Amino acid sequence: MGIQKDRVRFNVGGRIFETSSTTLANAGRNSFFGAIFDENWTLQSGHSDEYFIDRNPDCFAVILDLLRTGELYIPANIPEKLLYREALFYGLLDHVRSAKWGQFDGNRLRLSKSITGQAPGDGTAIRAGPDGGCCVAHGSMVHVYDWMLEEHAPITLDYQRVNDVGWIDSQNIVISVCERLGRGDGGMGLFSSSTGELRDKFQVNHENQVKSFTAGALSFSSDYKIFSSCKGRSNEYGIGVWDQVTGKQIDFFYEPPGWSLGDADKLQWLHGSNCLLVATLFPRKDNCYISLLDFRDKKMVWSWSDGGAPITVDEKRVRDAIAMEENSSICVVNEFEDLGFMDLRSTAGTIRWSSRSRLMKGNNMPDEPCYPKLALHEGQLFSSMNDCISVFCGPEWALTSRLRRSYGGSICDFSIGGDRLFALHSEDNVFDIWETPPPPII
Fold first, then answer.
1. Torsion angle, CA of 173/174/178/182, rounded to 10 degrees?
2. Is it true that the peptide bond before 438 is cis, omega within 30 degrees of 0?
3. Which stretches in the chain have pLDDT values below 70?
4. Which of 99, 90, 107, 84 has the alpha carbon at shortest distance from 30?
5. Contact (Cβ atoms closer than 8 angstroms) between residue 338 and residue 358
6. How many whole angstroms separate alpha carbon 317 and alpha carbon 163?
7. pTM above 0.85, yes or no
8. What per-residue string of b and e applies to 56-93 under the rule 16 or more CB within 10 Å gives b?
9. What is the rounded CA–CA span in Å between residue 253 and residue 299?
10. Terminal CA-CA length for the chain
């Protein structure tokens, strides 16, 4: 990098600090400090020997120590919010975040904080944001939290029940809601995550007419498409597709006879195969339907259903499903937290069940049990069951750790993003934040 080890002197709010250009180079070219060096990281000529910065000196000392050591130590007399504000000014917010919690690892997660929500009633969903924040859906409201876990203005959907929430980026979220008969509303909207302002509304067009509909499960693709399960009063049952940029509907996969798409519990876009996983699960329907849709050819390229199977077999109790592209398989889970796997390369559609995870069977069930949920992140598989989340790793998906706290009741939903895991409890209207501690500096 051609870093010159010149000594640099700062006067920050009346306090003098002295450091080297080597230390300041750790801030990166796009930071406040990068502007005082040339392309070879040599101090630009024409500057005085001392740089005056009219900012908080106590926070500057913490930030400078972070650049020197790679470790973040926040004294008790400095509010974290104040430090984050100062780090934002210097262009070092990402440095502070990465030092505060490490790269996500399910086997090293520690409970960082629990937050009690404000809305009454059971939670519908929790979704992790890309920058470490989250949003929580309760009935007809969505509560949005930034990465500092401060709540923004809540989004109220005028008594329309929220079905799903998804982040487009750190500034925008999509909310899907139920249609109210006679009102001509429902569907999906794009909202500002910071102000709650409605920025766009997504419509369904059927036979050249705009239709009112119920929007359900959501998913997003890397080429800026939004997918949602849709139910209308005419023939608008299926999966709608919208352009994130224009907000216009660009495709619709109609539900074939004898199958279920419009009632889907879960959508998952598969980047490798350019297909969409659609799962409609018990008890929303009497039978379970899992399929892969290829929108390019308007084909259902893979499908499985337990329709016609004896009611006593485990397939009847599939509660969640997730596609695992690297293994060309789909993982499912039943109410005993047994994992099952289906080979996407086979059309037989049989489930290979694994009972090694049946650790909860026979234990006392909570007063309000919740159906298990699945998530896949960086080669680790996560499954919620009652009041804990299990982590599975390795080629045989061995159980490697469990995450559990002492109160809050069953976990009704969880989500991973921004190097955090968020778990929403059903009974006490509380959600937990799990983080990976940063690695030690050797």
1. 100
2. no
3. 1-5, 41, 44-48, 118-122, 181-184, 235, 308-316, 355-369, 406, 428, 440-442
4. 90
5. yes
6. 22
7. yes
8. bbbbbebbbebbeeeebeeeeebeeeebbebbebbbbb
9. 9
10. 23
